[in-house]
């Protein structure tokens, strides 16, 4: 009798006839869930009152606010500094200083458009909304300034506009490359696959920003990058690949909420800090050596790099990590200045 009871409690194997029925039920559940999400977005859209143009402009600005200091301003500086360095990085023998400085708004616009495309594509994802609710609740979606459905529609508008804009001002190839990287990072889950994959995609993105900003600063079709520029871009990509985990230090709570395997969450906070401090110190010396600059030129990147390394090891609160992240952006901007310093030394001597 007991043996019969045990046999009756064992689950029967699913037959071939039952599998299609189970699959259809799962498909129906997924479709119902999708409809519920869409219905929720539609109800939010219908319940919102019309807003002013200033409100919508602020919403657009909030998408990119956090990346102004880390991408838009530093990469604009990279483009202007590189174009002014003339034959050091470009095929231009004598850079036209006034013309290059006059293109500053165009370079700034180019960087901002590409950042906007990436940020909307990233922040519209459900996992990003979960993370931003913890780390950056002021962003458009967690603050309910617009829905995920509206963000997707906005992205449908921004992508072709960005393509057309870069077709006119230059850097179109880099924009198309970054669209592919954005797709890999967000929709293919590259950001959540591994911190190595995430840093690699980010490094490629920084290389595209740097190259495109330089070409726009030089003037559409006026000159191109030389062979030394590609070596320098590889170094810039390597700097980003080995140190960009700096931005993850202050975001650990949000990354944990979305189950993202960042370096500090995988290997621990203390180990992650050393993986930043050591490479920052190395690049602070290696980059001036690459450009064969005088010893006193080492002082600025070495001082900023030393401060970043010192703070990341000893100042470990969230607020301290946010301040150190700002210093990291200032440090890498000082490295971007080195080719221009090299050109000025060549002109002088």
What's the SSE blueprint?
Layout: H1 2-9, H2 18-47, H3 53-64, H4 68-84, H5 97-102, H6 104-123, H7 126-135, H8 148-169, H9 172-185, H10 190-193, H11 195-218, H12 227-243, H13 252-257, H14 263-267, H15 269-290, H16 299-314, H17 318-336, H18 338-348
Please characterize this protein's 3D structure.
The protein is mainly α and 349 residues long. 75% of the residues lie in helices and 0% in strands. The chain is built from 18 helices and no strands. It has helices at residues 2-9, 18-47, 53-64, 68-84, 97-102, 104-123, 126-135, 148-169, 172-185, 190-193, 195-218, 227-243, 252-257, 263-267, 269-290, 299-314, 318-336, 338-348. Helix 4 packs parallel to helix 17 (318-336) and helix 6 (104-123) runs parallel beside helix 9. The longest helix is centred in the first third of the chain and has 30 residues, at 18-47. The radius of gyration is 25 Å and the shape is globular. It starts with a helix and ends with a helix. Mean pLDDT is 86; it is low at 1-12 and 26-37.
Low-confidence runs of at least 5 consecutive residues: 1-12, 26-37
What value does the Rg take, in angstroms?
25 Å
- Helix fraction? over 70%
Question: Span from first to last CA?
Answer: 101 Å
**Mean pLDDT level:** 86
Q: Give the class from helix and strand content and strand pairing.
A: mainly alpha
Briefly summarize what is shown:
This protein is mainly alpha-helical.
Key descriptive features of the protein:
single chain, 349 residues, mainly alpha, 75% helix
């Amino acid at each position: 009798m007991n043996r019969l009871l045990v046999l009756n409690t064992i689950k029967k194997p699913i037959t071939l006839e039952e599998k299609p029925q189970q699959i259809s039920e799962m498909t129906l559940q997924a479709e119902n869930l999708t409809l519920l999400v869409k219905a929720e977005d539609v109800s939010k859209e219908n319940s919102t009152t019309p807003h002013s143009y200033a409100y919508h402009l602020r919403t657009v600005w909030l998408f990119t606010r956090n990346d102004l200091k880390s991408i838009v301003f530093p990469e604009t500086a990279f483009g202007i500094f590189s174009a002014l360095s003339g034959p050091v990085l470009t095929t231009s023998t004598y850079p036209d200083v006034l013309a290059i400085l006059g293109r500053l708004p165009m370079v700034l616009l180019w960087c901002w458009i590409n950042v906007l495309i990436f940020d909307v594509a990233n922040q519209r994802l459900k996992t990003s909304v979960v993370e931003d609710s913890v780390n950056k609740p002021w962003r458009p979606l967690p603050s309910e300034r617009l829905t995920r459905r509206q963000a997707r529609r906005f992205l449908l508008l921004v992508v072709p506009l960005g393509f057309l804009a870069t077709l006119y001002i230059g850097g179109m190839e880099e924009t198309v490359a970054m669209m592919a990287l954005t797709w890999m990072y967000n929709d293919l889950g590259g950001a959540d696959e591994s911190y190595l994959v995430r840093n690699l995609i980010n490094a490629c993105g920084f290389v595209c920003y740097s190259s495109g900003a330089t070409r726009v600063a030089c003037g559409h079709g006026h000159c191109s990058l030389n062979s030394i520029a590609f070596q320098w871009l590889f170094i810039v990509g390597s700097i980003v690949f080995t140190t960009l985990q700096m931005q993850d230090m202050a975001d650990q709570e949000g990354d944990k909420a979305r189950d993202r395997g960042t370096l500090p969450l995988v290997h621990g906070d203390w180990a992650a800090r050393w993986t930043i401090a050591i490479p920052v110190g190395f690049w602070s010396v290696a980059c001036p050596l690459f450009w064969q600059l005088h010893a006193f030129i080492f002082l600025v990147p070495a001082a900023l790099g030393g401060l970043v390394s010192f703070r990341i090891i000893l100042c470990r609160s969230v607020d301290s990590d946010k301040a150190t992240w700002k210093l990291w952006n200032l440090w890498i901007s000082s490295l971007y200045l080195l080719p221009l310093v090299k050109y000025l030394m060549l002109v002088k001597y």
